[in-house]
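Subject: NAD(P)H dehydrogenase (quinone)

B.,
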Amino acid sequence: MSSITDSQHKKIVIVGGGPGGYEAALHARGLGADVTLIERQGVGGAAVLTDVVPSKTLIASADTIHRFREVHDLGVHLVGGPHDGAEVEGLAADLQTINTRLLRLAATQSRDIRRGLEKEGVQVVDGTGSIAGPNTVHVEAEDGMEYDLAADAILVSVGAHPRTLPDAQPDGERILTWTQVYNIEEIPDHLVVVGSGVTGAEFASAYNGLGAKVTLVSSRDQVLPGEDADAADVLENVFERRGLSVVSRSRAGSVERTEDGVVVTLTDGRKIAASHCLLAVGSIPNSKAIGLEEVGVQLENSGHIAVDRVSRTTVPSIYAAGDCTGVLPLASVAAMQGRIAMAHALGDAVQPLRTSVVASNIFTSPEIATVGISERAIADGTYSADIVKLDLSTNARAKMMAVEDGFVKLFARKGPGTILGGVVVGPRASELIFAISVAVSKGLTVDDFSDTFTVYPSLSGSISEAARRLHHLQN
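Prediction pasted inline below.
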């Protein structure tokens, strides 16, 4: 491990101020390095300004409406509303207010991050950066100045942008990417979401909650291909109950603007008329034309920057983090990659990235959180493990909250009972998964879980109960 004194003589230049960039900057400053961060869009990058922060704020509004519409058993109703157990009526979303709030929150978060960086002594440059050499970054500043910065190490954290289709080009009004949806001033009469991965499922769930008619076009048999099958099944059942239509095993061939809406033509010839279309068909890394290949940094065929487990590229002095690397498109992973890169570059203690312990969450309603191995890996024989799944409908707290959808699932290695992974589907699954994430990361066993007190009643009680059942299976 190096001393901070050693690191004080090193210069770090970071291109891109998203989670990977700003977390790296803070960590490098903490180790005493001289740090300059270059960002063209605003500190926080797309994650803060156009992706994670605004989309999850939109989802929070939609989730509130979902809960109001489905909690009539709790005896809650609007004044003048029904008292006979029917759905609560009269709820409406003001999209202009929602969008104003979420954009304000995003801008505020960006300013707060910038202030935090500057307070710690990071030099923040508004502009663009490109790689001019293994130890040189060329800066085109917003004020018109151009100059080169020398660096002992460079971190590239330039993110990604939405992928589009050749015959479905966004216009920012009716045909939209997820960065443009906040331009809509009224709830869409009918929104077609193309793509049933995480982004597509989240926006479909959100706009359905806000009151739009939603059609989700999925190229696979189920939504969220690649995710836990039981979780996807719960979500599809909820979608069906809430009137959201899923067109499975279908692909969009083109999207055309009409006088008052759009027409989505599927590759089999079927057509869907709607008011708006949201394209959620993946993303493309912002790695081209910034000098990487010219200095010898290897790019994958997809355009992603090839990195090792300490975020190092094929050029030893250049590191990369975040969506431009294609490791896992999560803000938490980008941040960890950035911190690891700086620790390695500055000689601090380093624990290489372990993607096997990454926790992730899908912010649909209900939420879907996962960590560790998948049930598919058990089924194909990669791991020898026992599985216990408990529906939240059996949980006392869930009953009190009128929660009927969701479950807790744990995977434990046969024999020692080490917890290898888990899935939580339900309200605030993003919070509940943390306990399982700690268990997976630290190698805890089902007995460690089952011997630990939980609050009664609580949703987390189902995690402890699943652990006790796994104990019984293994003894």
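The CA atoms of residues 118 and 124 lie 7 Å apart.

T.
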